[in-house]
């Protein structure tokens, strides 16, 4: 129970000024001490202790290698001599870049007749070749600008240069996240403030809302960083998420305060009544949101767990700050207007059977789309179609693949890989991989030995010697780590096509395993980014099912407490269950893949939907206890405006994300908008009808 001295403090002349000063201080502290630069790593989906990473670590330990950067250079002028010279100069410049351990190009290695260098340096386009750079694991955020500077120093209208590779993709994703964090989070905040001003037409409400939300965001960012969680793939949207969570409490608190202030001119009493009428619903809304983020903690994907922890902090902070700070503005600054009870929403069109039937049919249609939901988002979908960056990545992907996969095999009978029969099996496996449409470039012991056979007098050397040569320092780091010292295992390094294959990754990898078995080999381990993405797709699908299913179950328990009625709780649950169906079904119908950044949006939309329903049901329950005959009609009249305002503000704020050049940000914004709209429709249209509310009389119009 809030004590009376709290209300006295809120009505003090200094309270609102102090709150405003704290908000400004919070922004300053975040600017000075919080690292807002997103951190994205090559294993950005998983933590080091995740099982998915153990296979990759095992391959790296047994077959040491370094991340590669692929630079595709195309000759536009069709001048072979000039092109050769340009490649030589660019190669020399790139090899001098700090963080580059070595590499290969047509200036350093002749690809003609070499089964190895023809694979990695030549492209289907005879006018284009690759420069392969071996990195020393320098942070891509540091390395890529150096590479770009070296390329810019040799910029020519005759050359078309495209850069790819895992370090490059990692850095480009980080840049996109940072740009969206700075640009679109701030833009969304400005939109929120503008819409609040247009809806309420009270500068004190605008200032109070923004100050409260800024304090929530600042405190959340500071606490989260203190816990060792930094801005990453999902927490890049944390600013907007916490802002919206706080905004929801503020809007409903404002609505109840306005009604209380219209009834009681005394500010202290009006404030006390407004807080009393809102706090219970806010608490249970916070609880459902908290449970939504808790459900993310069971996910294996590190970004989901990090968002879960950050979301828990943000949810708690949003409630505490909303009720500790915002009442200060209501208690002193916000103007009190004497208004009559607004009953316009008592005849909300959706209360009729036609409106309910229309929404039900729409939800049923969208629900069908959930069958086709694609959780296997490909790397290329992280970048906008038609952009120069996407076109370049697609070109490199078409040439030889953009996602890496490691396959380690051994003889099923335990024979050494340098024995003639086993090596013939390796060659058969190589041929099968080359013929597979999902596979691009393949580097393996057979291609290395094929290159060794081009050396002088190689025809006189036995296979074991050729394999020693191929595994030695002569071919530098590219040849190291393709056979074990014991010669019992062989490593195949694949670049997989992302755009050309429409098959699920699991299907592709099962087929690759069958290629190995058909060649007389057995697969020891499969790892690499392509495999991690497949694992991620399964984790996203699992988290959607378990997380949303578990959240709906928990919500039913909360609904029982809030409504104090089993039938009403069931109907609330049915209405809420429609929200993820709308979001996921729309994505399924439109063929939009759900990536790791987009996946939590359904949970967030679910939490927002729960807010609307809980506030409405709590209000209706109290009206019913007070003896109101048309409790639902009056409840919609009193709370419906706040629901529509919250929905409108959220939709307007997140619509700015559509302008992002980073598709995951666009998809996240779309999911939240869809969920918010569905929640408002279910709360104001369907739920009152499901509980048996009769049509309002004509005199109410």
Task: Walk me through the structure.
The longest helix has 35 residues. Helix 9 packs antiparallel against helix 10. By secondary structure, the chain is α+β, with helices and mostly antiparallel strands. The protein has 23 helices and eight strands. The strands form two sheets. A four-stranded antiparallel β-sheet has the order 2-3-1-4. The protein has a four-stranded antiparallel β-sheet with strand order 6-7-5-8, with helices on both faces. It is 61% helix and 8% strand. The protein is elongated and about 95 Å long. It starts with a helix and ends in an 11-residue tail after the last helix. The protein folds into three domains: 414 residues, Multidrug efflux transporter AcrB transmembrane fold; 97 residues, 2-Layer Sandwich (Alpha-Beta Plaits), CATH 3.30.70.1320; 133 residues, Alpha-Beta Plaits, CATH 3.30.70.
Q: Can you tell me the CATH class of the largest domain?
A: Mainly Alpha
The tally of helices reads: 23
Shape estimate: elongated
Strand order of the largest sheet: 2-3-1-4
How many beta-strand runs? 8
CATH topology of the largest domain: Multidrug efflux transporter AcrB transmembrane fold
Quick one: CATH superfamily of the largest domain?
Multidrug efflux transporter AcrB transmembrane domain
Rounded average pLDDT = 82
Helix content: 55-70%
Radius of gyration: 30 Å
Counted up, domains total 3
Strand content: 5-15%
- Distance between the terminal alpha carbons, to the nearest Å? 39 Å
The second-level CATH architecture of the largest domain is: Up-down Bundle
Structural class designation: alpha+beta
Poorly predicted runs of 5 or more residues: 340-351, 457-461, 473-479, 694-701
Question: Could you describe the largest sheet, including whether it forms a barrel?
Answer: 4 strands, antiparallel
């Amino acid at each position: 129970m809030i004590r009376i001295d709290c209300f006295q403090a809120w009505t003090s002349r200094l309270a609102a000024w102090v709150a405003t000063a704290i908000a400004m201080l919070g922004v300053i502290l975040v600017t000075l001490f919080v690292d807002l630069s997103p951190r994205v790593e090559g294993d950005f989906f998983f933590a080091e202790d995740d099982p998915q990473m153990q296979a990759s670590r095992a391959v790296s330990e047994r077959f040491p290698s370094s991340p590669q950067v692929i630079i595709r250079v195309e000759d536009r002028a069709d001048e072979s001599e000039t092109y050769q010279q340009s490649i030589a100069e660019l190669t020399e410049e790139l090899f001098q870049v700090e963080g580059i351990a070595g590499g290969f190009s047509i200036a350093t290695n002749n690809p003609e007749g070499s089964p190895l260098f023809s694979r990695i340096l030549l492209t289907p386009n005879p006018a284009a070749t690759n420069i392969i750079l071996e990195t020393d694991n320098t942070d891509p955020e540091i390395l890529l600008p150096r590479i770009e500077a070296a390329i810019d120093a040799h910029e020519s209208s005759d050359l078309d240069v495209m850069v790819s590779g895992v370090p490059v993709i990692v850095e480009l994703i980080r840049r996109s996240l940072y740009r969206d964090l700075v640009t679109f989070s701030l833009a969304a905040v400005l939109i929120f403030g503008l819409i609040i001003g247009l809806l309420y037409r009270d500068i004190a409400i605008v200032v109070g809302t923004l100050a409260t939300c800024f304090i929530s965001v600042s405190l959340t960012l500071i606490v989260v960083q203190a816990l060792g969680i930094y801005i990453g793939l999902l927490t890049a949207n944390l600013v907007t998420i916490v802002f919206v969570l706080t905004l929801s409490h503020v809007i409903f608190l404002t609505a109840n305060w306005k009604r209380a202030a219209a009834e009681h001119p005394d500010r202290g009493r009006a404030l006390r009544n407004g807080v009393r009428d809102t706090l219970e619903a806010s608490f249970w809304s916070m609880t459902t949101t908290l449970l939504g983020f808790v459900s993310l903690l069971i996910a294996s994907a590190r970004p989901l767990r990090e968002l879960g922890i950050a979301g828990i902090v943000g949810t708690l902070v949003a409630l505490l700050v909303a009720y500790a700070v915002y009442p200060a503005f209501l208690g002193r600054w916000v103007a009190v207007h004497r208004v009559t009870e607004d009953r316009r929403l008592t005849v909300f069109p959706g209360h009729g059977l036609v409106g309910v039937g229309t929404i039900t049919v729409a939800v049923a249609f969208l629900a069908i789309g959930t069958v086709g939901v694609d959780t296997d988002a490909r790397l290329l979908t992280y970048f906008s179609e038609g952009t120069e960056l996407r076109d370049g990545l697609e070109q490199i992907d078409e040439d030889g693949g953009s996602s890496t996969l490691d396959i380690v095999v051994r003889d099923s009978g335990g024979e050494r890989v340098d024995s003639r029969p086993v090596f013939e099996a390796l060659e058969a496996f190589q041929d099968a991989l080359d013929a597979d449409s999902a596979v691009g470039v393949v580097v393996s012991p057979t291609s290395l030995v094929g290159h060794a056979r081009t050396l002088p007098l190689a025809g006189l050397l036995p296979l074991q010697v050729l394999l020693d040569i191929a595994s030695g320092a002569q071919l530098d780091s590219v040849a190291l780590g393709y056979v074990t010292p014991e010669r019992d295992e062989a490593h195949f390094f694949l670049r997989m096509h992302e755009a050309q294959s429409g098959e699920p990754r699991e299907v592709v990898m099962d087929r690759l395993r069958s290629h190995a078995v058909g060649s007389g080999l057995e697969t020891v381990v499969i790892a690499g980014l392509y495999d991690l993405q497949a694992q991620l797709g399964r984790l996203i699908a699992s988290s959607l099912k378990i997380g949303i299913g578990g959240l709906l179950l928990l919500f039913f328990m909360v609904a029982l407490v809030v409504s104090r009625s089993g039938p009403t709780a069931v109907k609330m649950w049915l209405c809420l269950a429609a929200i993820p169906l709308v979001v996921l079904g729309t994505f399924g119908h439109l063929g939009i893949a759900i990536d790791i950044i987009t996946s939590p949006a359904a949970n967030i939309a679910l939490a927002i939907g729960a807010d609307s329903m809980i506030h409405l049901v709590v209000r209706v329950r109290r009206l019913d206890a007070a003896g109101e005959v048309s409790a639902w009609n009056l409840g919609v009249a009193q709370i419906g405006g706040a629901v529509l305002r919250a929905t409108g503000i959220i939709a307007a704020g997140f619509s700015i994300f559509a302008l992002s050049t980073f598709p995951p940000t666009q998809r996240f914004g779309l999911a939240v908008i869809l969920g918010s709209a569905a929640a408002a429709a279910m709360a104001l249209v369907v739920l009152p009808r499901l509980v048996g509310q009769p049509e309002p009389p004509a005199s109410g119009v």
